[in-house]
Design goal:
Number of strands: 0
Shape: elongated
Order of helices and strands: HHH
Structural class: mainly alpha
Largest sheet: none
Number of helices: 3
Distance between the termini: 79 Å
Radius of gyration: 25 Å
Length: 94
C-alpha cells in the first residue's frame, strides 16, 4: 500500500515538474532581421571553411566541391547585399 502512495506522489511530482509554467518567462532579446542575417553569414562562412577543409583532405570530388562552393558563395553574397541594404536604411540608394 505504501508503494502505491510513493508511486502516486512520484507521478504527481513528475507531472508538476513537466507541465508547470512559471509566472514570468525570459524569452531573450528580440532578434532583428540584421542580427539574423549576421548569424546566417557566420554559418555560411563556417560552412565554406569546412567545405575547403574537406576538399583539402580529399573527401569531396572536385566537381562537387566547385558546385557547393559556388552555392555557398552565392548565398554569402546575397546575405551581404541584404545586410548592406539594411544598414543603409530605407529609401537610401548606393
Amino acid at each position: 500500500m505504501t508503494w502505491l502512495l510513493v508511486a502516486a506522489l512520484l507521478t504527481a511530482a513528475t507531472l508538476f515538474y513537466v507541465f508547470y509554467i512559471p509566472g514570468q518567462l525570459f524569452l531573450g532579446p528580440e532578434k532583428t532581421r540584421a542580427s539574423y542575417l549576421r548569424e546566417r553569414k557566420d554559418a555560411v562562412y563556417e560552412n565554406l571553411r569546412d567545405l575547403n577543409f574537406e576538399y583539402q583532405a580529399g573527401k569531396i570530388p572536385d566537381a562537387d566541391y566547385q558546385q557547393m562552393k559556388s552555392s555557398l558563395q552565392d548565398e554569402a553574397a546575397t546575405i551581404l547585399a541584404e545586410i548592406a541594404r539594411l544598414e543603409r536604411g530605407p529609401g537610401k540608394t548606393a
